[in-house]
Amino acid sequence: MASILNRYENIMSTNVCGMIEFAEDPMKMARHLSHHMEDDLSKTKREGAELIAEIEKLEDNKSVPNAEALLVAKKAELMKMHEIVDTLIDQIKQISAIRAAFFEAAGFY
């Protein structure tokens, strides 16, 4: 759970365009950010799948102590993960657009 919240804080506080604009090598920074965010997206999706499996297990086995409270907490965590995924996808799209603009400005398109 801590890694999810840390990742959420980092993603929500990242100003992608600002980071690239002031970078020494903007193209390199855009490429680095893109790879980093795609890795985060993969990790978050993997953790989300594990969380869904935990939720399904809890729903099937209500005899676990505090099952209802655990379900509520796990579902809230899953909602937060959905927000992270949506934000990462939006930021990856922004970076892709910036990279395309760099390529166009350099005459590669």
Explained architecture:
By secondary structure, this protein is mainly alpha-helical. Helix content is 84%, strand content 0%. The chain has 4 helices and no strands. The chain has helices at 2-13, 16-21, 26-60, 67-105.
Write the layout of secondary structure elements.
Elements lengths: L1 H12 L2 H6 L4 H35 L6 H39 L4
Question: What value does the Rg take, in angstroms?
Answer: 18 Å
| Total number of helices | 4
**Low-confidence spans: pLDDT under 50, at least 5 residues?**
none
Question: Into which percent range does the helicity of residues fall?
Answer: over 70%
Q: What is the strand content?
A: under 5%
The oligomerization state is: single chain
The chain-level mean pLDDT equals 82
User: Major beta sheet, specifics?
Assistant: none
* Order of SSEs: HHHH
Keywords:
109 residues, mainly alpha, 84% helix, 4 helices, elongated
Task: Give a short synopsis of this structure.
By secondary structure, the chain is an all-alpha fold. The protein contains 4 helices and no strands. The protein is 84% helix and 0% strand.
